[in-house]
């Protein structure tokens, strides 16, 4: 009997030790939960191809890429109707210059005009780059541009290359149209 009591006591000590170790090493977690639903929809403005055949315009959903624009040193060059902003409902939007990169020293200036296709009226002009403007900052642009349902605005580029601009240099411009959601 005394032998069984010793075994029982040893077992109780081992059990108590195991429980203490389990309690000490246990971690407590608290959780917060979040569920979000995202739905698809259409923007009130879209890109559409322009009529200028001197450039290559590629539109993939909300992204538009234009290539093929070039100019001569010291000359002002205009590319009209490279792409269009088409309104499927009346809205306002912001045109933001995200980046101007590459060989910007070849530019005297670059601007974009947004021109109503039906009336040939200039709706907005944004200076993308001005070599004499030391305050140029990416993120600048035009806010609160209003376009009405059915309007099409042509995007027209105008730039002047510096008189000493060497051949083969490039400048890349990244713009963004921000539409309130």
Q: Summarize this, please?
A:
With 181 residues, the protein is mostly beta strands. The chain is built from 1 helix and 10 strands. A hairpin with a 2-residue loop joins strand 2 and strand 3.
How would you describe this structure to a colleague?
The protein has 181 residues and is mainly beta. It has one helix spanning 2-25, and strands at 45-49, 56-60, 63-67, 76-87, 91-102, 107-116, 122-130, 141-147, 152-161, 171-178. It has a 5-stranded antiparallel beta sheet with strand order 1-4-9-6-7, with no helix packed on it. Strands 8-5-10 form a 3-stranded antiparallel beta sheet, with no helix packed on it. The longest helix is centred in the first third of the chain and has 24 residues, at 2-25. The radius of gyration is 32 Å and the shape is elongated. The termini are far apart.
The percent of residues in helical segments reads 10-25%
> Which strand order do you get reading across the main beta sheet?
1-4-9-6-7
Q: What's the alpha carbon Rg, rounded to whole Å? A: 32 Å
| Strand tally | 10
Average residue-wise pLDDT: 88
Low-confidence stretches: none
The SS-based structural class is: mainly beta
Q: Notable features of this structure?
A:
181 residues, 1 helix, 13% helix
């Amino acid at each position: 009997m005394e032998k069984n009591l010793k075994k029982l006591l040893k077992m109780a000590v081992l059990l108590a030790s195991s429980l203490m170790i389990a309690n000490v090493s246990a971690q407590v977690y608290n959780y917060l939960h979040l569920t979000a639903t995202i739905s698809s929809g259409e923007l009130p403005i879209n890109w559409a191809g322009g009529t200028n055949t001197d450039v290559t315009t590629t539109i993939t959903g909300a992204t538009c890429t234009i290539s093929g624009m070039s100019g001569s040193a010291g000359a002002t060059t205009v590319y009209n109707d490279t792409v269009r902003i088409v309104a499927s409902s009346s809205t306002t939007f912001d045109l933001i210059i995200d980046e101007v990169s590459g060989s910007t020293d070849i530019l005297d200036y670059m601007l974009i005009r947004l021109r109503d296709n039906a009336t040939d009226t200039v709706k907005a002009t944004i200076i993308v780059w001005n070599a004499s403007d030391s305050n140029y900052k990416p993120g600048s642009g035009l806010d609160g541009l209003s376009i009405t349902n059915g309007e099409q605005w042509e995007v027209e580029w105008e730039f002047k290359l510096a008189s000493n601009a060497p051949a083969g240099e490039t400048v890349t411009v990244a713009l963004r149209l921000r539409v309130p959601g």
